[in-house]
Amino acid sequence: MNRRHVLKAAASTAVGAGALAAGATEAMSAPRTSSNERPRGRDFVEATDGTQLAFTDWGEGKPVVFVHAWALPSQMWDYQRGPLARQGLRCIAYDRRGHGRSSVPKRGYDCDSLADDLATLLNELDLNEVTLVGYSFGGGEIVRYLTRYGKSRIAKIALIAPAATPFVMKTSDNPNGVPAEKLELFRATIQQDFPKWLQDGKKAFFVADTSPSLQDWVMQLMLTTPLRVAIECNRIMTSTDFRAELPRISVPALIVHGDKDASAPIDLTGRPTAALIPKAQFKVYEGAPHGLFLTHGDRLNADLLGFINA
């Protein structure tokens, strides 16, 4: 218990660096409802291997757990979890191991371990009737969680701009995938100069009127992820075949994808993902890039709210 209090105190000191000030202040001022209840705001749970997983818990109502993107921490959800918490939802976002405020273990970046981490969070907070919302790489973790642990705690899922499903790598039975050598070249490129790759590619991630400040904020968040972790997660993201798992998903699913997504082209990821999930709703945002959680944030928030409350 004392160790956890120390971790919480350290986390509180760092809050102002990345979170939106208004949203963070509102969330952290929420009163505790019981002397035995885990403080609402910022906290940690411990994975089975001892990894400390940081999370935030804002609002009251139906629980929504947000799973973030490749190389981005949970702060990427600031523009969803703040507004949705004000609309009567309990919004919980956690940092994947190796990301954000979570600890950085040497191992555990495979899909099974990442799904186990999500299970730890849901179990520790005793969450039920949860909507899981995953963006990009996060969608793969959600799929693996469901096929590994079942749906007993889960009401619905939303996969936003999925980048890992159904299967990214080109193989003899997946001819439209990306060749393995091209994926290795990508990892070699970011190993050499990750900031340059981010700078060169950020235009395609946003739309023309996205402010330079918002673009810089996202790039800075990505640069907080250790490069080794980013490379390991990319290797898992691009080599895991979810095709047999997607038809086993039996909860209602919302798939949202932009038709101008250069990072995860809709015909490689979003469209076939929706086709393989039996109860999927598929929404295409015309003109939306991969960063639609920011560029089309108001529309996405309205769609999520409607889907969760339906």
Describe the structure.
The chain is of the alpha/beta class and 310 residues long. 42% of the residues lie in helices and 16% in strands. It has 11 helices and 8 strands. Strands 1-2-4-3-5-6-7-8 form an 8-stranded mixed β-sheet, sandwiched between helices. β3, α3 and β4 form a beta-alpha-beta unit. The longest helix is centred in the middle third of the chain and has 26 residues, at 180-205. It starts with a helix and ends with a helix. Residues 1-37 have low confidence and may be disordered.
Strand line-up in the sheet with most strands: 1-2-4-3-5-6-7-8
Tell me the structural class: alpha/beta
Instruction: Please give the number of β-strands.
Output: 8
What would you call the quaternary organization? single chain
**Which blocks of ≥5 consecutive residues have pLDDT under 50?**
1-37
Helix and strand element order: HHEEEHEHEHEHHHEHEHH
| Amount of beta strand | 15-25%
Could you tell me the radius of gyration in angstroms?
18 Å
**DSSP helix count?**
11
- What is the 3D form? globular
Biggest beta sheet summary:
8 strands, mixed
Helix content: 40-55%
Distance between the amino and carboxyl termini: 39 Å
Rounded mean pLDDT score: 89
Q: What descriptive keywords fit this protein?
A:
42% helix; 8 strands; 8-stranded mixed beta sheet; alpha/beta; disordered N terminus
Per-chain topology:
Blueprint (H helix, E strand, L loop, with lengths): L1 H12 L7 H8 L13 E5 L5 E7 L3 E6 L10 H9 L2 E6 L16 H14 L5 E6 L2 H12 L4 E7 L19 H26 L6 H11 L4 H13 L13 E6 L11 H7 L3 E6 L6 H4 L1 H13 L1
